[in-house]
Design brief:
Strand content: under 5%
Number of helices: 15
Distance between the termini: 20 Å
Shape: globular
Helix content: over 70%
Radius of gyration: 18 Å
């Protein structure tokens, strides 16, 4: 049976652990809020009413594709394409191609950055492998002007962040919503986690410090995983609404 992502791929290792997926989710939450096309997510009303659910659904779709059989993965991508076309028709405008590409590029960046913070550095070949998976995803979505490889992607990503990110009233509102839905303690952890993996452009726009307090906690958390105590920690920190879904992310 052919899979969209080979079973021994590093991409499956990245997306097969709830810890990594949560970091991807956290990083995307920061950058989503800065994207100039974030008004599209406000158009449906889903983002401001429950930003965590909206962002988590984006990450969940990506994860389903990564672990799906090839034909099933292509069907999921096609359904995503169709859903967005419906939104475009309802608004009477097209979502810019660069906005789709930005979301895809976010997933590439945070896949690599999250794994490297929690596990180990990736080789150039492994980074290329990560890029290739999302490149095929983007091609199926009919995206234009994508970089052909990881090296080109890094250059394009820098340019895109300069052009497509800005701090706006949407940014301020979204972070207020994050705090409202998470509570003060979880919100603090979210921000500290974001500091570990966001690109410099995002850090600059959000005025985040470079040092995260989590650097002092992460070694203890990694050690706790050896004794399967991480599940207890996550149970204490995660909103009950999402806890069960997040536990299911771990591939045994």
């Amino acid at each position: 049976m052919k899979y969209f992502v080979e079973k021994d791929s590093v991409v499956r290792k990245i997306w097969g652990k709830s810890d990594t997926v949560l970091f991807i989710f956290g990083g995307a939450a920061a950058e989503f809020a800065l994207n100039k096309a974030v008004d599209w997510l406000y158009f449906t009303g889903r983002l401001p009413s429950d930003p965590l659910a909206r962002l988590f659904s984006t990450v969940s779709y990506a994860r389903k594709i990564i672990f799906a059989e090839n034909e099933s993965a292509l069907q999921i991508i096609d359904s995503i394409f169709t859903i967005h076309k419906v939104v475009e028709n309802n608004r009477g405008k097209s979502i810019p191609d660069w906005a789709y590409r930005d979301v895809l590029y976010m997933l590439i960046h945070y896949s690599i950055a999250s794994f490297e913070v929690l596990e180990r550095k990736l080789s150039a070949e492994e980074k290329e492998e990560v890029y290739n998976v999302f490149y095929r995803f983007g091609k199926r979505m009919k995206l234009k002007d994508m970089a052909s490889n990881h090296i080109e992607w890094m250059r394009q990503r820098e340019t895109d962040m300069q052009n497509d990110l800005r701090k706006s009233n949407y940014t301020v509102d979204l972070f207020k919503q994050y705090k409202k839905h998470l509570g003060s303690v979880r919100y603090f952890i979210l921000i500290e986690g974001q500091k570990l993996i966001i690109p410099e452009r995002v850090r600059e726009l959000l005025k985040f410090k470079k040092i995260s307090l989590l650097i002092f906690i992460l070694p203890f958390y990694k050690f706790s995983r050896l004794f399967h105590l991480d599940s207890v920690i996550k149970k204490l920190l995660l909103p009950k609404k999402y806890a069960q879904e997040i536990y299911k992310l771990d591939i045994k």
